[in-house]
Every structure is written in structure tokens, then in C-alpha cells.
Amino acid sequence: MPTMADVARSAGVSVATVSHVLNGTRPVLPHTRQAVLDAIDALGYTPNTLARSLVTSRTSSIGLAVSAISNPYFTEILQGVEAAALEAGYSLLIADPHDDPGHERKVVQLLHERRVDGMIVAPSAHPHDLVGYLRRHAVPTVFLDRTIDADMLDGTMVGGGAGTAPGEHAPWYDQVCTESAEPTARLVTHLAGLGHRRIGLVAGLPGLSTTRERVSGYRDGLTAAGLAHDERLLVSGNSESAGAEQATAALLALPDPPTALVTANNAMTIGALRALRRRGLSVPGDMALCCFDDFAWADLFSPRLTAVAQPSRELGAQAVRVLLDRLDGPRRPTRTVRLPCAFIHRTSCGCPEEPGRSEKRGPTTSSMQSEKGTAS
Description:
Elements lengths: L3 H8 L3 H9 L6 H14 L5 H8 L4 E5 L6 H16 L3 E5 L5 H13 L4 E4 L6 H10 L3 E4 L29 E5 L2 H13 L5 E5 L5 H16 L9 E3 L4 H12 L7 E4 L2 H13 L9 E5 L13 E4 L2 H17 L6 E5 L2 E3 L25 E4 L3
Parallel strand pairs: 1-2, 1-3, 3-4, 4-5, 5-11, 6-7, 6-8, 8-9, 9-10
Antiparallel strand pairs: 10-12, 11-13
């Protein structure tokens, strides 16, 4: 097996120069760099990443902890994370916390023990132990999809205040997510505009930021449409298909059930459709339906599903870019990056199929991307 010394002899440079080319630890003249790369290619040299990590204190690896990897939404996020990481020369170690706080803490520790340079984590509804571990070990971390506020941790300081350097109070935590409130409100006002006065929401797992924001958007949409807030129409599907099926059944059992329904993620959309089918109800004839999360087969249903589409792959790629910025500048101010969603207008809401009508894929927010400094 060829060694770094073999590469150096072939390229006519020092071993130190080969190391600088491989590790990017010092600028190297373009023609010298090319000579080293040509020698590596000719000899079939494979760098020893373990030895390199001992020199650079970097492993060029990222830990990714997301629940429900089988969920198409998180699968697309994973594809975005992987592509961006590979493009930057990083490998990916993946763990599924199963949305269980105890398991979440364990898998994050396991990833950290593998000496990943940083982590991308979709936190659970109760991330106290997770944040405690990240704080104690000063692990560079980006929270993905779901955000964490100090209020979620019973007043525990998660990040420093404005102008505070990392380490003075706690590590900084960058966050990358999508807009949730305004797109949900748009689904509600769209249904209201079609004449619906009793609109139900099948919300996600209590405690998640995405759940809180979509519930807030649902209520904002009702207010904007001049509709009364009937709390019986707001039920929890716990972000899963089975939970949504039970929640939808509870809505249908009300003395005055809703005539339209918003589901807060793709898994719960499937559960709601099952509940409607079990009762012989049609969409949109008996129940208009709009959903948060678009997915590959949403336009194959009959009727085709009106949905809010999240930029899943870009969300994952953006999380990698934010993490790499954090690794390059540990003391930079924290960022919360929110990407806009798109309103996909189909027919499950009750709108007629119009020949030649294109789906509305414009963002539901006024700007293409919002980014702000915040103490997470």
C-alpha cells in the first residue's frame, strides 16, 4: 500500500507539502498541488483519516440524529444533509432517537464518542437531557426542523445573550427550520374562503416547536377568517398515522363535526384518510382536506392533495452549511434560519380540477429565506 512518503517522492515535494494538500492546513502553489494530486491518483494512495484526525483534531464527520427516518419528509432531509456533507468532504454518522428523550440522549452521546466534528439534531419534545449533554461537552450543534427556546427548558439558559461569547454562559446553538405558522394559516383561510365554518386541525406531538407553531397558525387563520375558536376541533394526532386516525375519528364523533380538516404532517394525513375511509366518507365531498407536508405521491391520490410543501432537501443542506460555518467560526453569533414553504393547490380542498391549471408552488412567505441572530 503506497504511503504519504511515496506520494512525496513521486511528486518531488516534501511529506509536509503532501500533508498540507490533503489537510488544507497551508496554502500550496497550484502547480505543486496538482503534482501532489496527480501522484495520489497514479499511486492509488488512500489517506489515513484516523492519522489525519490525530494531527488536525478533526474527523471530517458529522453526526445526524433525526427520528422517524422512514418518514419521507426526514428521508428527503437526510438526502440533503448527505449530499451537502459529501460535497464538503465530510462523512455522515446517523442515529434515530425515536423521539424518545432518554434514547435521544444516548444516541447523541454515542455519536459524540465517535468524535464527530459537530452534530445536526432534530430534538424531541423534551430535550432537557440532550441540551444538558451538549452544553457540558460544548458540542457544535445545529437544531434541525424543530427549534428550542429557553422557555422549553423551564428557564434553563440554552445560549448566551446578545454579545455573549460561547462558553461564558452556554454554547451557542444554531437552528434551521421552515416557516410553519403562516403556511398553516393559509390552509385555514383557503378552506374558509370555500365556505367552511367548522375547520378541524389534527396537530402533531405536544411539546414540539412545529406543533406549537402550526397550532398558532391554525388559530391565526380562524381569526383572519372571522371564525370562532372551537377547541373541540383541535385534536392531537401525536405526529403519527395511528394517532391521527384516532384523533380524526374523535372529530367525526362530535355532535357537530367539522366539514374541513387540516392535518399537520404527512403521516397524520394518511391516518386521517384511513379514518374517513373506514366511515365511508369521501374527500372532498364529505370532508375537505388540506395537509402540511407534500410528498411524492400526493398528486396520485384521488382527489389530489392540496398541501404545504417544505423544502426538505434544502433544509438538510442548509443545516450542513450552518454547521460548517460554526466549525469555522466558533465565536460567531448564532443564527436561526427559516426557509419558506410552498402552497400546492390541488383538489382535496374542494376546488374543481381545472384543465391546464398549474400548481401554485410560490413561497407562502414574503421572502425566500429569513435569517436572524438569536440566543437559542
